[in-house]
Structure formats: structure tokens, C-alpha cells
């Protein structure tokens, strides 16, 4: 079983219900959710919006490969009302966003998926909840733990 770490975010509708629905669907379709962070209220990152986000991180144990996980998370997003993915760092309001952050210690770069997520270390809304549930997990590229990455990021904010 692989451990897949996912970042979750929502800034539309009933945000807490959106996160809980996404976690339930991940558990049903990808694999047992073994840990879920607290929910963090954050301001939008990379765009302007009047709607704050609610963010979380989850760990799921799966038998699926990384691209299968990606396709299933995208299907969950679409099912929950997301109409467009962010392209070339152009972001917008969304009912749910599910980012594949890490898949065990897999390092890969394809046109469809880069692992670990290339921007995770720049985003406190990712690193705060991720460090809560996986503080001792080591980033396969930087060699830092999630807690070390979180602390490093906090120094620059």
C-alpha cells in the first residue's frame, strides 16, 4: 500500500461540508483515509477573492498508481462542481481543489503530473496542515521533513 498525501481546499459554498465530502469520496474511491488535519481558514493565494479558503491535508493508503489517483481526484472535483482546473498559475474560486502532494517517496515529472507537488513548499496553506499529519515524513527531493519545510516557509512570511 502506498501512502498518498493530498491537499484539500475550498472557498465556495458550505466549505466544511465540501471538505468532508471530498474526504469521504477519497476514502471510498482511492483508499482508506488514515489521517486528516484540522481545517485551516486561509486567504486566497495567487489571486484576489472575497472568499476565504478552508484547507486541510489528508493521507490515504492506496493500491492505485499516482496517475490513477490523479484521475480519480479530478473526477471527484468535477463531481463536486469544479468546472475548470488552474492553468499556468491562473487561479479562481472553486468548490473543491484536491492536489496530489506526495505519493510515498516517488519523484516523477510527466506532462500530466509532477511529484512531489512542485509548489507545496511555497504554500503555508499546504505545509501547515501537512506538517500536522506528517511532520516527520521526509520530502524525497529536499531531504527535509514536512515540519522543517513548514518552519522554513514560516520564516519568510
Automatic annotation (TrEMBL):
One of its GO terms (molecular function) is kinase activity. Pathway: Cofactor biosynthesis; tetrahydrofolate biosynthesis; 2-amino-4-hydroxy-6-hydroxymethyl-7,8-dihydropteridine diphosphate from 7,8-dihydroneopterin triphosphate: step 4/4. It holds the Pfam family HPPK. PANTHER family: 2-AMINO-4-HYDROXY-6-HYDROXYMETHYLDIHYDROPTERIDINE PYROPHOSPHOKINASE (PTHR43071:SF1). Residues 5-134 form the 7,8-dihydro-6-hydroxymethylpterin-pyrophosphokinase domain. InterPro entries: Hppk (IPR000550), Hppk_sf (IPR035907). This is 2-amino-4-hydroxy-6-hydroxymethyldihydropteridine pyrophosphokinase. Catalyzes the transfer of pyrophosphate from adenosine triphosphate (ATP) to 6-hydroxymethyl-7,8-dihydropterin, an enzymatic step in folate biosynthesis pathway. The keyword ATP-binding applies. GO terms for biological process: folic acid biosynthetic process; tetrahydrofolate biosynthetic process. It comes from the Bacteria. Its EC number is 2.7.6.3. The keyword Kinase applies. Keywords: ATP-binding, Folate biosynthesis, Kinase, Nucleotide-binding, Transferase. Belongs to the HPPK family.
Amino acid at each position: 500500500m502506498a501512502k498518498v498525501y493530498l491537499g484539500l481546499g475550498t472557498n465556495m459554498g458550505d466549505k466544511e461540508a465540501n471538505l468532508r465530502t471530498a474526504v469521504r469520496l477519497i476514502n471510498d474511491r482511492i483508499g482508506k483515509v488514515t489521517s486528516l488535519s484540522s481545517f485551516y481558514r486561509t486567504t486566497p493565494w495567487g489571486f484576489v477573492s472575497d472568499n476565504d479558503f478552508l484547507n486541510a491535508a489528508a493521507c490515504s493508503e492506496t493500491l492505485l498508481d499516482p496517475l490513477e489517483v490523479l484521475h480519480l481526484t479530478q473526477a471527484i472535483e468535477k463531481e463536486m462542481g469544479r468546472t475548470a482546473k488552474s492553468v499556468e498559475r491562473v487561479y479562481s474560486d472553486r468548490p473543491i481543489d484536491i492536489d496530489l502532494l506526495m505519493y510515498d517517496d516517488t519523484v516523477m515529472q510527466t506532462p500530466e503530473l509532477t511529484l512531489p507537488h512542485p509548489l507545496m513548499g511555497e504554500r503555508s496553506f499546504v505545509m501547515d496542515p501537512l506538517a500536522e499529519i506528517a511532520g516527520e515524513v521526509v520530502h524525497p527531493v529536499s531531504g527535509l521533513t514536512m515540519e522543517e519545510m513548514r518552519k522554513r516557509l514560516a520564516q519568510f512570511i
